Amino acid sequence: MSARTTATKQKLFDAALKLVGERGAASVTVDEIAAEAGVAKGTIYYNFASKDALVEALLRHGVEILAGRLRAAEGAEDSLEALVDAMLGFWAEYPAFGQLLVSELWRTPGQWHGTLSLLRDDIVSIVRGQMKRLSDAGRLPEGVEPGTASAALFGTLLVIALDWQVFQPERSRAEVRDSVMLLVRGMRSAR
User: Fold this and answer.
1) Burial (Cβ within 10 Å: 0-12, 13-18, ≥19) of residue 58
2) Where are the alpha helices (DSSP H) in 38-145?
3) What whole-number distance in Å separates Cα of residue 125 and Cα of residue 63?
4) Residue 77: CB partners within 8 Å, gap ≥ 6?
């Protein structure tokens, strides 16, 4: 893919994400996305077969970015804290993506449910690997399965990030991360 095509797709992703985050995917038109991106409507159809294909590609693109950040956190000294921080950082940088993800995950069966299920599984599997390492080291509460812990952490961080962005934007990422870590560590010590 050429640098120009990559830049155009990024411009379309940014425009679509802004509009979809504000109003939801169903209520945004191709004309509006093109106007927001400052391109002709045909540019969207040149790069994507339809608005639905654009939204699906946007979902995949966002999850690839998040997955890359989570994988990078795996090698940190406190990899759980690094994972929490990476996820919060992603949601802080892309709050509209979090809104899109939540709205489409809850729309059952939504148009992108199959794609979202696969993408969610990709992210949760990265978190599950971390939870498995913690479990193997005896650092998860007795009886908590890594799969349950990973889904719980992912869901908790998504909701906390949305709450932070919408209702408590004055809090720093470090404050939010530290609160989450107190919660996580408090659960571990409650055994």
Assistant:
1) buried
2) 41-47, 51-73, 79-93, 95-106, 113-136
3) 12
4) none
Which region, left, alpha or beta, applies to residue 171 given φ > 0 means left and ψ of -120 to 50 means alpha?
beta
Q: Give the mean model confidence (pLDDT) for residues 140-147.
A: 88
pLDDT of residue 1: 66
Mean pLDDT of 148-158: 90
Tokens of 165: 């962005």
pLDDT (average), residues 69-85:
91
Classify residue 32 by burial, with Cβ atoms within 10 Å: 0-12, 13-18, 19+. Answer: middle
C-beta pairs of 35-39 under 8 Å, 24+ apart in sequence: 37/11, 37/12, 38/11, 39/8, 39/11, 39/12
Exposed, middle or buried by CB within 10 Å (0-12, 13-18, 19+), for 121? exposed
Mean pLDDT of the chain: 88
pLDDT at 24 (0 to 100): 79
CA distance 100 to 103: 5
Mean pLDDT of 158-185: 93
